[in-house]
């Protein structure tokens, strides 16, 4: 039993060595730690062509809207040989990556695009509809008539109501 455990351990160690391969050298590494004003930057490049860099600072320091702002980029070659380049910004608007390899949303259908353009060109009609909707909501409310009774001025039509 002990022999089997030893053989499994030796086989596992040899597989681990094969998977690790040659260590990849770091060609360049720069790191400017967190400064007194909260800013920092780092960058590196490896022997297999991976490059990365990032800078960060505090925006609106000392105010209620204080927050981090980070910009950076990463470049490498994918397993299929495609060069990948990613740039990003992370701030009060969230993480915003950009790169040709990122998926893009499908195009907006033509009919919807036309409707959006028409709505943008006619904002006054939207405002009129909002006013009309507000007036209808007010008129739909039950009103107090002074006799300690409430009534609704509009009679609702119920299509399921039978008249005998």
TrEMBL record:
Record field: compositional bias (Polar residues): 53-80
Keyword field: Cuticle, Signal
The keyword Thylakoid is annotated on this UniProt entry: no
One Pfam entry name: Chitin_bind_4
Listed PROSITE patterns: CHIT_BIND_RR_1, CHIT_BIND_RR_2
Disordered as annotated region, ranges: 53-81, 121-146
Sequence ranges of Basic and acidic residues compositional bias: 130-143
InterPro entries in alphabetical order: CHIT_BIND_RR_consensus (IPR031311), Cuticle_Struct_Prot (IPR050468), Insect_cuticle (IPR000618)
The protein's name: Uncharacterized protein
Organism: Phyllotreta striolata (Striped flea beetle)
């Amino acid at each position: 039993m002990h022999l089997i455990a030893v053989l499994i351990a030796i086989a596992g160690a040899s597989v681990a060595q094969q998977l690790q391969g040659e260590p990849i050298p770091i060609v360049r590494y720069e790191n400017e730690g967190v400064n007194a004003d909260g800013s920092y930057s780092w960058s590196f490049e490896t022997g297999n062509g991976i490059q990365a860099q990032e800078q960060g600072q505090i925006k609106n320091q000392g105010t209620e809207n204080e927050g981090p702002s980070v910009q950076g980029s990463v470049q490498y070659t994918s397993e299929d040989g495609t060069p990948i380049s990613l740039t990003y910004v992370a701030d009060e608007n969230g993480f915003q990556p950009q790169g040709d390899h990122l998926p893009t949303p499908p195009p907006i259908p033509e009919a919807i695009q036309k409707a959006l353009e028409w709505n943008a060109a006619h904002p006054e009609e939207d405002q009129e509809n909002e006013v009309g909707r507000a007036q209808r909501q007010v008129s739909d409310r039950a009103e107090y008539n002074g006799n300690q009774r409430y009534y609704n001025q509009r009679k609702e039509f119920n299509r399921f109501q039978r008249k005998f």
